[in-house]
Automatic annotation (TrEMBL):
It comes from the Eukaryota. This is gamma-butyrobetaine dioxygenase. One of its GO terms (molecular function) is gamma-butyrobetaine dioxygenase activity. GO terms for biological process: carnitine biosynthetic process. The lineage of its organism: Eukaryota, Metazoa, Chordata, Craniata, Vertebrata. Signal peptide: none annotated. Keywords: Carnitine biosynthesis, Dioxygenase, Iron, Metal-binding, Oxidoreductase. Catalyzes the formation of L-carnitine from gamma-butyrobetaine. The keyword Iron applies. Belongs to the gamma-BBH/TMLD family. It catalyses: 4-(trimethylamino)butanoate + 2-oxoglutarate + O2 = carnitine + succinate + CO2. Residues 117-367 form the TauD/TfdA-like domain. One of its GO terms (cellular component) is mitochondrion.
Length: 388
């Protein structure tokens, strides 16, 4: 049921509007924000959901001339220049400035809830055809991917091209220097350590890019009989452990800019260089992205010599936690399996497997950005839950 308004009034010499709701709660709205977000056709373009009012035309010290309750579902404001604005009760309620309301809106928009895991992970599984054909299943997939960080899609065809379909289901894939999709198999003169039969240590993909891909897809087309098991670890869970166990190491890894490099030829020739912190944190000190790939960490290191060994010690402790038996989960992909995971959170690796005269293991890989994935999640939520 949409909220109803009991009373509305101006406060603080007209700089705020106070709304008293029928349930007894109240909200206070700064007038500069109300004027900035006028919903009339002159100030707002509904077809684009975009503001028309130029910022240079906004008076940051504006006060209301008159505020009235049009009905219990709407308030009207007249401004000093006689411009009139109306605001729906439901629109206002969603944008209340209380701490609780702001947290609720942010949770609704960005789904920050996380379910941490270690070696006890129960790998979520959903049939590939279900998420392709059913909106509820696709919504469940993307919600679980955001919350847990990893979901296995089963039953895809054991041939190239399935990831293109998956990309179209969410919107589009991320193009990189390795192409729209890329083939993980043993290659002569490999231009990436993944294109060998050797062990791959825990890593996130592409920290050499300023904006690494948020989501990764790996589709098993052919699997070797011996070896080749996949390994994953919840990087955010490990970060929490490190922060508690050794705050100084956590501080070093979240503040030291590390040089990464990737030079070669694939989709086109490339020479990429970037600086990243191993652990990116938010304003509260919580990890929001892991940028760690030992293979592409550069020999160039732009820090004072006396800080090098403490950095290595901190990284060693983090790496040991990643590889501890209690944190890593091991599984083996079957032909037709597609593992989808959060490349900012989940570090992945692979056990070695025997080389041979022909290709014995073949995965097709692709990336998507979290912006694209979350966009599709919100659109699916609106359809499935009939929500705005």
């Amino acid at each position: 049921m949409s909220p109803g308004i009991q009373k509305v009034e101006a406060l603080d010499a007209g700089h705020f509007v106070r709304v008293e709701w029928e349930d007894g709660s109240e909200s206070r709205y700064p007038c500069v924000w109300l004027r900035d977000n006028c919903q009339c056709p002159i100030c707002f373009l509904p077809s684009a959901g975009a503001r028309r009012l130029p910022f240079e035309d906004l008076d940051v010290n504006i006060v209301v001339k008159e505020v009235a309750l049009a009905d219990r579902k709407k308030i009207s404001i007249t401004w000093p220049d006689e411009h009139a604005s109306e605001y729906e009760a439901e629109w206002l309620k969603k944008r209340c400035f209380s701490e609780e309301a702001r947290a609720e809106m942010q949770a609704d928009l960005f789904l920050p809830e996380r379910q941490y895991w270690g070696s006890d992970l129960h790998l979520p599984k959903i049939p590939f055809e279900e998420i392709m054909c059913n909106d509820e299943s696709a919504y469940k997939w993307l919600c679980t991917l955001k919350k847990v960080g990893i979901v296995l899609l089963t039953g895809a065809a054991a041939s190239q091209g399935e990831l293109i379909k998956l990309g179209q289901r969410i919107g589009f894939l991320r193009l990189t220097f390795y192409g729209p999709t890329w083939q993980v198999q043993d290659k002569a003169d490999a231009n990436n350590v993944a294109y060998t039969t050797g062990k791959l240590c825990f890593h996130t993909d592409y920290p050499v890019l300023h904006h690494p891909p948020g989501v990764q897809f790996l589709h098993c087309i052919k699997q070797t009989a011996a070896g080749g098991e996949s390994e994953v670890v919840d990087g955010f869970h490990v970060c929490n452990k490190l922060k508690k166990q050794n705050p100084e190491a956590y501080q070093i890894l979240s503040s030291t800019a590390v040089d990464y490099t990737d030079v070669g030829v694939d989709y086109c020739d490339f020479a990429v260089h970037c600086k990243q912190r191993i652990i990116d944190i938010d304003s509260r000190g919580q990890a929001v992205r892991i940028n760690y790939n030992n293979a592409t960490r550069d020999a160039v290191f732009d820090i004072p010599a006396e800080k090098v060994r403490p950095f290595y010690a901190a990284l060693k402790e983090f790496n040991d936690l990643l590889n501890s038996a209690e944190h890593k989960f091991t599984y083996k992909l079957k032909p037709g399996d597609i593992v989808t995971f959060d490349n900012w959170r989940v570090l992945h690796g692979r056990q070695s497997y025997p080389s041979g005269s022909e290709v014995t293991r073949h995965l097709e890989g692709a990336y998507a950005d979290w912006d694209v994935v979350l966009s599709r999640l919100r659109r699916l939520r609106k359809r499935v839950l009939n929500r705005d």
